[in-house]
Amino acid sequence: MHIGVKLPHTGTGVPATTVALRARELERAGFDSLWVSDHVVLPEVIASGYPFSSDGKATWPTTTPYLEALVVLAAAAAVTERVRLGTAALVLPQRNPILLAKQVASIDAMSGGRVALGIGAGWLREEFEALDTPFDTRGARMVEWIELLRDCWTGRPAAYSGAHYELPAGTLVLPEPVHDIPLYLGGHSPTALNRAGRLGDGWLAQQALPALDPEQLAGETATVRSAATAGGRDPARLHVVLRLVESAGRAETIARRLGDLALAGVDEIIVDVGRDGDAEADHAVLRDAASSR
What do you get for the CA distance between the two ends of the chain, in Å? Predict the structure, then answer.
């Protein structure tokens, strides 16, 4: 199992000047991948239902600062050499697909082909409204944006005429990425699971460690793989990534559950780390557990 970690780039206790240093520290600690989360803006009061809590309420204050996801990935790319770099998850329909394709390809080129893009349709209507982006069509636009991203990453996308985007013929989007950038589609709704199987290179799941439910993950993974099979795709090629929130300082607890997660079909986990200096010890605990399965 791959062991990934969220790069600390959110919160009032995270100095912006230390993000690159933490990226370097986490790579030296041995983690396989570094991941960033995404919110461009937050409302003072969230009225939208949060899909990852039992009561529908967001679990963090809206005053939490977020350094912009792609800017942070570029900074991490500049100071690391081996570790993979990903988003978990970028809200795809909020972004201009052509500009996003350019940004991600640029980071991939600068990093030597280390980028993975976890993407989601989004849930926060207030954020969409602040960005002057339609909320109710976000699912349909996400499907179009996926097609546009992959075509743009060839460097010479074909003319495109969709319900939500027009791209003229003769458009060049250069540089091309160094490698085929995997798209891991997030979400737990039936629509999201089906979409991940039909269109994604993998599925990006999320659970809070205190409420970890491998049986639920196993059922959802089976749904994703079934959707891939129905779409004529090889389900064995899908990469399942699990973002474990509320996991800082709980490496021993996670280590005891790695076997259950592997049986549920999880290929990679993304954990939180605590204070500076904890990362190497946390990684050692998790790597030993993964190696002894």
Answer: 10
